[in-house]
Design a protein that fits this description.
By secondary structure, the protein is an all-alpha fold. The protein is built from five helices and no strands.
Length: 104
């Protein structure tokens, strides 16, 4: 299926989205707010992907390719290294992924 018209994310892609979301926006005890990896926030992100689903799926596939496996299966240090590499060269898919996480 063409990634640009994909209508949903796989289970592995959703797991990686949760991990990346939590890395971008961690829980704050100081401000008493959940991280972006919170189940309710993840539900909102998934529910509002709409036309961005294909590009987000592409971004998550690129992350998994860089990791050599699903990002969620890596330890924290390796996750950080993979995400740093992705941010440096992920182009438009990286920008779209960041935008959909930040807007929720």
């Amino acid at each position: 299926m063409d990634q640009l018209v994909k209508e949903s994310l796989t289970s592995a892609q959703r797991d990686d989205l949760r991990v990346i979301s939590g890395m971008m926006i961690p829980q704050s005890d100081e401000y008493k707010v959940p991280g972006a990896d919170d189940a309710a926030i993840q539900g909102d992100i998934i529910a509002t992907l709409g036309r961005d689903t294909g590009m987000v799926a592409t971004a998550l596939d690129l992350v998994a390719k860089l990791a050599g496996q699903p990002l969620a299966s890596l330890d924290d240090a390796r996750r950080e290294a993979v995400v740093t590499e992705f941010r440096a060269g992920g182009g438009a898919p990286c920008a779209v992924l960041a935008r959909v996480i930040l807007q929720c």
